[in-house]
Fold this sequence. Notes:
Blueprint: H1 4-16, H2 22-34, H3 41-59, H4 69-77, H5 81-92, H6 101-116
Helix pairs in contact: 1-2, 1-3, 2-3, 3-6, 5-6
Amino acid sequence: MLNKDNLKTRVNILKDADIISEEIANFAYQVIEELDDSYSDDMCEMFTTHLVMALSRVEKNEPVETLDPIIFEEVKQNEHFKDAQLNYDKLMKDSKYALPEQEKEFLLMHLTNLLENQ
């Protein structure tokens, strides 16, 4: 069962260290509440950390990482990819941030893994 308090603590650590803004932390708390309790703690930690760091990169106009296209093609072939896209849209609907496609691909990969391993 997913421990949402642990995820929030991770976000707090990043916020308290001034790695992410309070606004990103507050958005992350909303996203964490939306995560299904059946998801793996480890997978959610990776997803949440990547999400807040991606948002921080956008907020600070920092360079964006690129996912290897071959890996993303494999992700798109996964039976859970379409559901991952729906979950991404649901989670990001209240975000003021428009993530670049490269960051979106990483997050879709993490969401696909969450669904596959629940």
